[in-house]
Amino acid sequence: MKALVLNSSIDEKSAVNTVSDYLVDFLRINDHEADVMVLRNEKMASCLGCFGCWLKTPCECVIKDAASDLPRKAIQSDLVFLLTPVTFGMYSSELKKALDRLPCPILMPFFEKIDGEIHHVNRYDKYPTLVAIGVLPNCDDESEKTFATLVTRNGINLHTKAISSIIYSTDKPDVIKEKVVATLSKAGVQ
Fold it and tell me: For residues 73 and 79, what is the distance between their CA atoms, to the nearest angstrom?
């Protein structure tokens, strides 16, 4: 199994890094391949909205930076992990910037109706499972609900199964590890 891990930790001391370390260790110990991008260390421009990835260079962003290869890496993976501090129920700004560069290159510029909603048509036959693990400083039911809804909606837009999980930065390391393993189990990773 091949995984792409997008770590959007704010700094080296972030609990997101602890989650990432447990996740990557688990994947590698169980003979899964893990390609990790620590987004704060990457130079990434914001999406231009030029649609060049649809028309000029399918599945490749026309901006040449760390995110230009992201669509290809994602579509060639079985799992894409989104690791992020949760801000008002949303992804971090760095993760959002990376994700803005993902859908257009891997979808077609045509539309179809899915459960009464309009969505883009698949470009490929197979899409990776989306697994988002959000880190909150403490329990916040509204942020947790918003985060779960966001991940579910992104899964619909990307034509894939989507799983979300919340971990608290105050959790002890063994609890974080248990939650990571439980999330992997939901995703079918052993």
Answer: 10
Domain enclosing residue 80, as ranges: 2-186
Residue 128 neighbours by CB under 8 Å, 6+ apart: 4, 74, 75, 77, 78, 79, 80, 160
Provide φ and ψ at 145, rounded to 5°. -65, -45
* Under 8 Å between Cβ of 133 and 19: yes
- For the record, the structure tokens of 30 come out as 């169980």
For residue 125, give Cα distances in angstroms to 31, 50, 75, 158, 187.
Answer: 25, 25, 10, 12, 19
Check residue 8 and give its pLDDT.
Answer: 97
Is 0.85 surpassed by the pTM of this model? yes
14-50: b (≥16 Cβ within 10 Å) or e:
bbbbbbbbbbbebbeeeebebebbbbeeeebeebeee
Q: State the average pLDDT over residues 6-35.
A: 95
CB atoms within 10 A of CB 109: 13
Which CATH number covers residue 9?
Answer: 3.40.50.360
As a whole number of angstroms, the distance between CA 9 and CA 18 comes to 10
Which two structure tokens, joined as six digits, stand for 161?
């199964």
Between CA 30 and CA 189 the distance in angstroms is 9
